Amino acid sequence: MFSEEYIKKHLNYDIDISLYDSVTSTNEILKTRALSGAPHLSLIAACSQTAGRGRLGRNFFSPPGSGIYMSILLRPHGTLEDSLCITTCSAVAMCRVIENVSAASPGIKWVNDIYTDKGKVCGILTEGGFHPDTGDFYAICGIGVNLTPPPGGFPCDIQGKAGALFDNLPDKHIPEKIISDFINTFVPMYNNISEKTFLPEYRKRSIVIGK
User: Fold this and answer.
1) Cα 92–103–11 angle (5° rounding)?
2) Per the confidence metrics, is the pTM higher than 0.90?
3) Is 15 helix (H, G, I), strand (E, B) or coil?
4) Residue 53 — very low, low, confident or very high, per pLDDT cuts 50/70/90?
């Protein structure tokens, strides 16, 4: 279980945080909360998911004891084009975080996967919706990070593709550090998302441009 005290101590923002050992899907839980009025920047993080999802409805492998699975609720007030850049913005932010906590050099596979020389270490899924009564738009950015190889290894269908940041955690607070660092990095970028200052970095980190 994550340490809420450690996360809040290192956060630059006072936001609503919910931490769990296991959930069905952080995105699905936060979607329900969004419709119930949860505030902007509400965060859910879990050590495992039983029904994690990736793009196109694919299963997102989320075993206990080896990763971080988190979702953040956003209530955008900008343009639709700005909202379409949430995944791009969060991918750049997470690459910076990965560089801060590890020796890895992360790159982005368009549009939502982060790779190191060990394989895919992070997946991002951004989903949007409208409140049925008010019509207010919300977006949920879900992020899964493989910290260490899962016991028994990755399933056959993602072997050779999936990887982990570490063989073993160098610090027991790495999960909390990644969560707090991501928020501290992402929020100021998101607050200025219309300026799209992160796009040159996104292109520089791309591992598919020209291929």
Assistant:
1) 55
2) yes
3) coil
4) low
